[in-house]
Amino acid sequence: MNLRKYFIILLYIIASAGCITQFIPETEETQSLLVVEGLITDQPGENTVRLSRSQPIGSYTDPEPVKGCKVTIEDDGGNIYILHEGEPGTYLTDPAIFQGAVGRKYTLHIEARNASGKLSSYRSFSMEMNPVPPIDSIYYEKQLINNDDDSPQEGCQVYLNTIDPEGLCKYYRWDFDETWEFKLPYDVDNQICWASDKSDAINIKSTSALTENVIYRHPVNFITNETDRLNIKYSMLINQYSISEDEFGYWKRIQNISDDVGGLYDIIPASITGNVYCTDDPNETVLGYFSVSAKSSKRIMIADSFAGLRHDFNAYCGTDTVPSGIQIPGLGTSLWIIIEYDAYRVLTRYRECADCSYRGSTMRPDYWDEK
Amino acid sequence: MRSIILILIIFLISLCSLSAQDNLIIKWNYQDLSFKDFASKVESESPARFFYRDEWINDLKLGFYGENIPLSKLLDNLFAGLSLYYFIDGTGDIVITKDFVVKISEEQAMDSLKLVPPTVYYDVQDEKKLSGNLFLEIGNPAEKNRTGNVVVSGYITDKDTKEPVSGATVYVRKLSTGTSSNAYGFYSLTLPRGIHLVQFSFVGMNEIKVDLNLYGTGEMNIEMKSTLIPLKEAVVSAERNATLQRPEVGMEKMNVATLRLTPTNMGEADIVNSFLMVPGVQTVGEGASGFNVRGGSAGQNLILLNGAPLYNTSHFFGFFSAVNADIIKDATLYKGGIPSRFGGRTSSVLDIAARDGSRKEFAGNAGISPVTTHLTIEGPLLKDTLFYLLAARTTYSNWIFKVFDNAYLNNSKAAFYDLNGEITYDINKNNKIDLSSYYSHDAFSFNSDTTYKYSNNIVALRWRHFFTSRFFSVFSVNNSHYNYDISSESIITEAFIMSHTINSTGLKADFNLFKGRHEINFGVDAVRYAVSPGDYMPASDSSLVIPNSIQKEKALETSVYIEDRFTLNDHVSINAGIRFPSFFTFGPRSVYIYDPSYSKGISTIIDTVYYGSGEICKAYAGPEYRISLNLRPSGTSSFKLNYNRTRQYLHLLSNTASISPTDIYKLSDSYLKPQICDQYAVGFYQLLFNGGLETSVELYYKSLKNMIDFKGGTRIIMEENIEQYLIDATGKAYGIEFLIKRDEGRLRWSLGYSFSRTFLKSTGTFSDEIINDGEWFPANYDKPNDLSVAFNYLATRRLSFSANYVYSTGRPITYPIASYQMGNMNLLHYSDRNKYRIPDYMRLDIGLSISGSLKSKKIANPYWTFSVYNLLGRDNVYSVYFTNEDNVIRGYQLSVFANAIPSVTFSFDF
Question: pTM for the whole thing?
Answer without folding.
Answer: 0.76
